[in-house]
């Protein structure tokens, strides 16, 4: 599909942009373009265009505002040492968006169209890559129901958009390891629910427990399973890995209540490349505490596109607080982060063909 190029009437001046990308934090600064593609049940996807980032005009009856038919993705673009640009496993994000679409009764977007939309915005906004160390251009593709009606049924009209945000670290810099609060009153997802889909509602539901975590002095909330309230699932927006003294690593299995993270999947491969045994199996909050206290558990890491690979240092659970290892970054966490980032940034060979040069 051809992308119509809409001329920007007033691009952000270079000086303002330079200031904005010097130290952008995470998700605070946006480039000045966006991709839009429309969908109608009778026409399929049509009218792909890239133009100025601008407010959307929506009918107040449009379905997303009432029944939350919305899904999104998150992926990063990197500037490589040779000056070229690259995406990391964009087809995996495209496939996950379509899996989310299946759960939310939304149409698939062809994977190549998803990837081309990402490519278009990166090349258009190439001057927006942050200058801060470790910076990247975070892409946020999303799709929502734009048809105006109030009956409860899947909409017949949708919009797919991609916006871009120059980003640095997700967690404020200087934090050696994050601290986690175990949610007691709230769960993220129940069996049969939407936990495996990347849909706004899952994140909306995480806001109160996340605010509780912050109020208790922690960085992130971790959710337990909805049925037994004992198995560790995931953080508000990241997957978890547990590394043990015997060289094995555990991560919670994809049972339908956990988001199948692209970083999670990549780390499983990198751990296998290291010759480590990685098990996708349930791990309980009690075991987490016992293993941390006995020293059998050496490290816990949180991972996601935004968070990359971040060490967990402290946990406050129902039975009180415990510390993981020294409470600071562990060896394996540091090594994995370095390996992943080096591949993403074109500073190391890419044995699995994960990097797509633009
Ligand atoms: C991502 O890691 O890309 C996410 O969508 C999670 C969110 C916490 C930013």
From TrEMBL:
Query: Which CDD domains does the annotation name?
Result: BCAT_beta_family
Question: Which pathway does the protein contribute to?
Answer: Amino-acid biosynthesis; L-isoleucine biosynthesis; L-isoleucine from 2-oxobutanoate: step 4/4; Amino-acid biosynthesis; L-valine biosynthesis; L-valine from pyruvate: step 4/4; Amino-acid biosynthesis; L-leucine biosynthesis; L-leucine from 3-methyl-2-oxobutanoate: step 4/4
Q: Is GTP-binding given among the entry's keywords?
A: no
- Where N6-(pyridoxal phosphate)lysine occurs along the chain? 198
Identify the EC number(s).
2.6.1.42
What keywords sit in the KW lines? Amino-acid biosynthesis, Aminotransferase, Branched-chain amino acid biosynthesis, Pyridoxal phosphate, Transferase
Record's keyword annotation contains Membrane: no
Q: What general EC class does the enzyme of this chain belong to?
A: transferase
Pfam families referenced in this protein's UniProt entry, alphabetically: Aminotran_4
Q: Which cofactor does it need?
A: pyridoxal 5'-phosphate
Which GO-annotated molecular functions does the record name?
Answer: L-isoleucine-2-oxoglutarate transaminase activity; L-leucine-2-oxoglutarate transaminase activity; L-valine-2-oxoglutarate transaminase activity
Listed under catalytic activity are: L-leucine + 2-oxoglutarate = 4-methyl-2-oxopentanoate + L-glutamate; L-valine + 2-oxoglutarate = 3-methyl-2-oxobutanoate + L-glutamate; L-isoleucine + 2-oxoglutarate = (S)-3-methyl-2-oxopentanoate + L-glutamate
Secretion signal, residue range per the UniProt entry? none
Q: Which GO terms describe its biological process?
A: isoleucine biosynthetic process; L-leucine biosynthetic process; L-valine biosynthetic process
Q: InterPro entries, per this entry? A: Aminotrans_IV (IPR001544), Aminotrans_IV_CS (IPR018300), Aminotransferase-like (IPR036038), B_amino_transII (IPR005786), BCAT-like_C (IPR043132), BCAT-like_N (IPR043131), BCAT_family (IPR033939)
**PROSITE patterns associated with the record:** AA_TRANSFER_CLASS_4
- Protein family (similarity comment): Belongs to the class-IV pyridoxal-phosphate-dependent aminotransferase family.
Per the entry, what this protein does is: Acts on leucine, isoleucine and valine.
Name assigned to this protein: Branched-chain-amino-acid aminotransferase
Q: Per the UniProt entry, what species is this protein from, by scientific name?
A: Tsuneonella dongtanensis
């Amino acid at each position: 599909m051809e992308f119509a190029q809409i001329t920007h009437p007033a691009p952000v001046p270079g000086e303002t942009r330079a200031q904005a990308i010097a130290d952008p934090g995470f998700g605070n600064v946006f480039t000045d373009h966006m991709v839009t593609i429309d969908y109608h049940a009778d026409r399929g996807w049509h009218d792909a265009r890239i133009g100025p980032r601008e407010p959307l005009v929506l009918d107040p009856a449009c379905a997303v505002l009432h029944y939350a038919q919305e899904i999104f993705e998150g992926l990063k673009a990197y500037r490589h040492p040779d000056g070229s640009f690259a995406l990391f496993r964009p087809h995996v994000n495209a496939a996950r968006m379509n899996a989310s679409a299946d759960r939310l009764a939304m149409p698939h977007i062809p994977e190549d169209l998803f990837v081309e939309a990402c490519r278009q915005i990166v090349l258009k906004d190439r001057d927006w890559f942050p200058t801060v160390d470790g910076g990247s251009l975070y892409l946020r593709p999303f799709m929502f129901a734009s048809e105006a009606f109030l009956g409860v049924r899947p909409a017949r009209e949708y919009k797919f958009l991609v916006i871009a945000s120059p980003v640095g670290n997700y967690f404020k810099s200087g934090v050696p390891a994050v601290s986690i609060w175990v949610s007691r009153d709230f769960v993220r997802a129940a069996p049969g629910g939407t936990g495996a889909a990347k849909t706004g509602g899952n994140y909306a539901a995480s806001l109160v427990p996340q605010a509780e975590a912050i109020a208790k002095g922690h960085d992130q909330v971790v959710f337990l399973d909805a049925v037994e309230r004992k198995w560790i699932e995931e953080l508000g927006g990241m997957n978890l890995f547990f590394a043990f003294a015997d060289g094995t690593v555990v991560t919670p299995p994809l049972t339908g209540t956990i988001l199948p993270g692209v970083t999670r999947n990549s780390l499983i491969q990198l751990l296998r490349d290291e010759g480590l045994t990685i098990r996708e199996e349930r791990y309980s909050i009690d075991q987490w505490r016992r293993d941390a206290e006995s020293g059998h558990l050496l490290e816990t890491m949180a991972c996601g596109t935004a968070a990359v690979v971040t060490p967990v240092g402290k946990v406050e659970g129902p039975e009180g607080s415990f510390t993981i290892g020294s409470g600071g970054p562990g060896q394996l966490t540091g090594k994995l982060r370095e390996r992943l980032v080096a591949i993403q940034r074109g500073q190391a060979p890419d044995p699995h063909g994960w990097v797509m040069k633009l």
